[in-house]
Amino acid sequence: MEKQTEDLQELLExxxxxxxxxxxxPEIPTPRFESxxxxxxxxxxxxxxxxxxxxxxxxxxxxxxxxxxEALLDHGISHYTCCPWDLSTHLRFYARAKEIxxxxxxxxxxxxLFMDIVADTHAVKERQSSLPLxxxxxxxxxxxxxxxxxxxRIWGVDLGCPGDDETVSRLATIPYLDKRRxxxxxxxxxxxxxxxxxxxDSPISDEHTRMGKHGFQQYAPEEIDQALREFAVEAESxxxxxxxxxxxxxxxxxxxxxxxxxxxxxxxxPVDANRLxxxxxxxxxxxxxxxxxxxxxxxxxPHSHRPWEVxxxxxxxxxxxxxxxxxxxxxxxxxxxxxxxxxxxxxxxxCLIMIDSSGSMIDPRTHLSYAVLGGGCAADSYLRHDxxxxxxxxxxxxxxxxxYLPFTRSRSLIYQVLCxxxxxxxxxxxxxxxxxxxxxxxxxxxxxDMQITNLDQTISRFSRLxxxxxxxxxxxxxxxxxxxxxxxxxxxxxxFGVNSSNDIPRIVLGSVRNYLAVE
Amino acid sequence: xxxxxEDFKDFLSKARGLPLDQxxxxxxxxxxxxxxxxxxxVEQELKSLVWxxxxxxxxxxxxxxxxxxxxxxxxAHSIEDFCYVLDNGAxxxxxxxxxxxxxxxxxxxxxxxEQIVLRLGDMQRTLHFLGYRLPYGKSLRIEGxxxxxxxxxxxxxxxxxxxxxGDWTGAGMTDGKITINQHCGRNTGEWMQGGEIWVGSRIxxxxxxxxxxxxxxxxxxxGDVLC
Lengths: 519, 227
Description:
Oligomer: heterodimer
Number of helices of chain B: 4
Structural class of chain B: alpha/beta
Distance between the termini of chain A: 79 Å
Largest interface: A-B, 28 and 23 residues
Strand order of the largest sheet of chain B: 1-2-3-4-5-6-7
Largest sheet of chain A: 6 strands, mixed
Strand content of chain A: 5-15%
Radius of gyration of chain B: 22 Å
Mean pLDDT of chain B: 87
Low-confidence stretches of chain B: none
Radius of gyration of chain A: 33 Å
Low-confidence stretches of chain A: 259-271, 287-294, 515-519
Order of helices and strands of chain B: HHHHEEEEEEE
Number of strands of chain B: 7
Number of strands of chain A: 11
Helix content of chain B: 25-40%
Helix content of chain A: 40-55%
Structural class of chain A: alpha/beta
Strand order of the largest sheet of chain A: 8-7-6-9-10-11
């Protein structure tokens, strides 16, 4: 047995350069044999293909070992170079499949099958793969028959799979290799195989597909984080994002644990779906940094040389750069320029973001909350200017519906508190808020729908503060009018009204820009 | 001039032609032709901004639809894919449920396939007039919901809807069978002159029938069977 393994290892090392050449030299290390549930798998963490030794041995009884190895390598490399290419694409496929099928396991199976068909077809069309020989051999179970029948039709190769199945006719016209249409193709593919997937005794189990299953564990933690952020932008709602994320959370945590064990990293913290969603979205509204003005110091200093002329004064001559001679045109004279220094030192104050999460506000977990997004934009702007941000998330604060995050520069913590949703009534604990504001001299940023029970006291207290207060209100509420009247009397209060929630990020950004740009 | 890629010219991939290329291209062409035909129908029908359901107008629209599709070679799967193209709205910006449904009905009636399965459950909108004038010998299975006038003027064909239908289901049908696994709306079987309508669950309202039978949950609720 060991001899056989050594022979296969030797064969693999011999074949590998040629397979890489056919695939235009992908940057992946030499594959290895391992006991793996799937015949072939790409470990994205190390970008290494893992071959199932047992499967190769079994198939080698029917086909030359070189053919089996080449076919498996073609399949593995195609996953790396063509489909899914990266976790972001894989995640998009899964999300679309989940949207259609409403069931995580079915969605995973459908996604795996689609990716296998694309990868195999790419290898056969573009890389002269021996995959048809592999599919022609061996017993076929369950869904393998349908896949082989489909391959027979779309590859134009006799795989010994008779039958003109209704399902195959549906699947055969899908443009699998057109990347731009993958999402539409996946929808068509799922429509085609849905009855088979949903059958109680489904033939599409992982054991009944030739290339096994593809999990999300195969990706590196950095890739997972990046892909989730990209998905946050594409997701239709925070709910869809959280739905997909919750399905994959177990697998993603496995990745973190594996890395922790294998590479000695510290303990990972679980990723919060809502926080990630808003963090990524807020990055789309990044404010530019305004440069500080420079002022002349009035002092002249030697800046550069220029040739001396007879009419010019002697005191600026530089004998060290004049070859020891006093000759017009050769002797160098110092050219003086006025220096620049910083004028009055500007500083960005810290910011206390007060966000209303009462029942009248949108729940950020189910729908896109522009209040949270606006708060996030404002927080990001202050953080980028080296200031600190505190968050006061409140509903009925006096009844305990509040969460306060002291001044910090941790973006993650800030978003965590911003995304908190209490529901219920709306009241501010003014003593607490004003003491924080007075102690820190921070800017106050209030985002609310103005349905605050102690609004009059709030306005009165804010008008007595020295801090700059920006209040953003949603809709035309009577409370907003009272705030606006207060802002006319007090220069430290600015009020922005929005008729559409979509305007909140813009208003917030404009306000912050004014703070930071105007002296 | 030095070409830095010269050394790699031998490595250029030799792509192999697969039947998939022709299959996908032919399917795309069919969908384009179907979309073009639908465009002609809409141009013809939408002289005004609103499309009214009037008997003569429906007949006229069906006639136009039958005319524009007569030279298109398509199959039952193309019809389903075309429905999703309509629903998607990217390639065809105007889905008007009435004309669109009549067009799809004309496609079903003129295809050479006798058994047609339309998996429309993932569509955002429902189409009206599905199964309009479906002739004897044809079977149409709709997986999902259908809109108003489903199976209207049915001419002997069999329609199965796995979801629900809207109002006026089977209106004016002369023969054939409509099976609705879930609910159907008002005026079910209005002007019905023959055939059967089987509804699995609730019927919101029955229409004035001339002949034919309507069943609810397996029990007859209207028609000559009660006489």
